[in-house]
Amino acid sequence: MAAYILRRLLLIIPTLFGIMLVNFALTQFVPGGPIEQVIARVQGEGDSFSNMSGGGNDSGAVEYAGAQGLPPEFLSELELQMGFAEIVCDDGFDGQPDLAAEECRKEPVGAARRFGKMLGNYVRFDFGESWFRSASVVDEILRTLPVSITLGLWSTLLAYLISIPLGIRKAVRDGTPFDTWTSGVIVVAYAIPAFLFAVLLITLFAGGSYWRIFPLRGLVSDNFEELSTLGQIRDYLWHIALPVISMSISGFATLTLLTKNSFLDEINKQYVMTARAKGLSEGRVLYGHVFRNAMLIVIAGFPGMLLAILFGASILIETIFSLDGLGRLGFDAAVQRDYPLVFGTLFIFGLLGLVIGILSDLMYVLVDPRIDFEKRAG
Fold first, then answer.
1. Residue 74 is part of which domain span?
2. Max alpha carbon distance in the chain (Å)?
3. If you write DSSP's letter for every residue of 264-325 in order, what string do you get?
4. What is the pLDDT of residues 1-50, one digit of tens each?
5. How many domains does the chain have?
6. Which ranges in 135-269 belong to alpha helices (H)?
7. Same domain, yes or no, for 222 and 356?
8. CA distance 201 to 72
9. Run of H or E including 106
10. Nearest to 246 by CA among 349, 152, 166, 143
């Protein structure tokens, strides 16, 4: 098992490299780069979409649409600060590199060099500074990551609390009207996108058109620090209720069917028939024998389900409910073309996903020692 874990850990490196390479290449073809964003902000136009002329790797000041009236020195300084250009001095120049010196000149930095430099910094976990925020990328990630993880954990826990009892009930009453109509509800829940269900909840319960029971945005109230401990807990749960329900809507459907099928598979095995033949009560058979074996695959899938919820719904849900999480941070950074934040959040998301995938495999081995990934790999 140690060799399998080591191989999985080593596989993280090329996988992350591929993720970063593909996304970095895509950004080279996206119109309206970061310098265009700065030009639009300086001229009070809000964003660069009305001034699109090229990707974020433009290097000449005259190439930027909408830059009329801005001094070329300003644009040149932006290119130097953002890494799209560098000052190169002739051999023998002893002074500090300066664009004003006759021996020095500005030259564009190619995409390959910028990508290599970025990877070199990421190996040291140096993500640099945000271009449009007064904070480092690490500080922004550390500030928003707990929000995303908290929502993911609560959503996964809620899905398990609903799915396991419902799945067991459906397995025991397989083929009955209860099983039929609950299956219909599950199919409908699975078909509803999380963001659409979030909009529905806001419309119904957050003052959209009907009742104003839950808050519309934020993770806590403005007076959170003034509340008692019990009041803080109640306020926190009050705020996360709708986001957590929205993120759990599709997850519990899959988990319920998995629980039901797992129980049905175990109920038909020989040891269950033997236990019943000995005169054990149905409850004793179900929860004393079947439950332990049927729950192996369900419990082992906890890390994988957490990963699916984090990647599947966090960005849209955090944006809809104005929650300052990692998903929303990455989305805002992508809109602003804040590449240090874009690739920093992408790197963290990718690393978390790969690590959680390894933890999921370890959970399978922990709950069922019969599983041997080492033999399967061989």
1. 35-109
2. 97
3. HHHHTSHHHHHHHHTT--HHHHIIIIIHHHHHHHHHHTHHHHHHHHHHHHHHHHHHHTT---
4. 677 788 888 888 899 999 999 988 888 777 777 777 777 777 665 554 44
5. 2
6. 137-172, 177-191, 194-205, 229-248, 251-267
7. yes
8. 50
9. strand 104-108
10. 152
